[in-house]
Write a structure and sequence with these properties.
heterodimer, A: mainly alpha, 70% helix, globular, B: mainly alpha
């Protein structure tokens, strides 16, 4: 039960923050990525603002043995980069630029995003379903 | 001159980071939107399905309840070109699963723990997004 309450608090605050920050407005996101056009620096404030509480949170994980619900904290980050990280991030960035939505804001704006928003989410789910076989092919090509 | 949008960006960003901190310190997990959705989609995270559903439900409902606070109509301003919407959605879905993270997981949660993977992912998706804007806005003029 405690896990669910924490999930609801976190998801709700995440959604509120995405709306307040402007991340659900595709023109602001594309404005941020459009360095050679009418550049909009708002997203730098969003990312900077989001990193600050997490710097504190990661520091606190070193002071405690387990999380509030008793689960261990995530293990140390994997130092290996790999081709999937790079290829995946490039594909994600291209899609993010084309439409101006990333996964969090796409879900957060479901209630007011209209048909376009719903189509985006369905296509994103389709892409997630297609990812495992694509990963197999990418790994095969990378091994050559 | 600091613009109002930048202040709202900072305030919203602090809220996003606090949400991620609650998820980490509370549940011991990294708040990554693509991972939370993707684990349900490809069934790899079905053992934690309830907290994923609750997280996503709150993510939809809370901003919906806040809309009346705005005296202007809130819009995503998403393109009406559905071909672009489908292409973008597919790329975001495939890309975030291959890279195992998106803006929230790699960007917010990864950079704040100085994860090399998070920082490299962020550099590449920002670069790809920037190049996409150059190509599709300034060269082709379709977005």
């Amino acid at each position: 039960m405690q896990r669910l309450v924490i999930s609801a608090l976190s998801g709700g605050l995440f959604g509120a923050g995405l709306l307040v920050s402007g991340m659900t407005d595709t023109t602001k996101v594309q404005g941020w990525l459009d360095v050679f056009g009418a550049w909009d620096p708002t997203l730098a404030f969003v990312l900077g603002g989001a990193i600050l509480p997490m710097l504190v949170a990661w520091h606190l994980t070193t002071k405690r043995a387990v999380s509030l619900v008793g689960e261990p904290f995530p293990s140390k980050p994997d130092p290996r980069l790999g081709h999937n990280l790079v290829i995946g991030s490039v594909l994600f960035g291209a899609g993010w630029g084309l439409v101006g939505l990333c996964p969090g804001p796409a879900i957060a704006s479901l209630s007011w995003g209209g048909t376009g928003g719903i189509v985006f989410i369905l296509a994103m789910i389709g892409g997630m379903l297609a990812a495992p076989p694509i990963r197999v092919q990418v790994d095969r090509l990378a091994a050559i | 001159m600091i613009q109002t949008d930048w202040i709202w960006g900072l305030v919203g960003g602090l809220m996003i980071g606090t949400a991620a901190a609650i998820y980490l310190l509370g549940n011991g997990r990294i708040m990554g939107a693509s991972g939370i959705i993707g684990g349900l989609v490809d069934r790899s995270g079905l053992n934690t399905w309830a907290e994923r559903i609750v997280f996503l439900a709150a993510l939809v409902v809370v901003p919906a309840l806040m809309l009346p606070l705005y005296n202007v109509e809130v819009s995503t301003n998403i393109t009406t070109n559905l071909g672009l919407v489908v292409a973008g959605g597919l790329l975001v879905g495939i890309g975030t699963r291959l890279a195992n993270g998106c803006t929230s997981g790699h960007g917010v949660c990864g950079i704040s723990r100085f994860s090399l993977r998070g920082m490299v992912a962020t550099v590449f998706y920002l670069l790809a997004g920037g190049i996409t804007m150059v190509l599709f806005r300034h060269v082709l003029g379709v977005i």
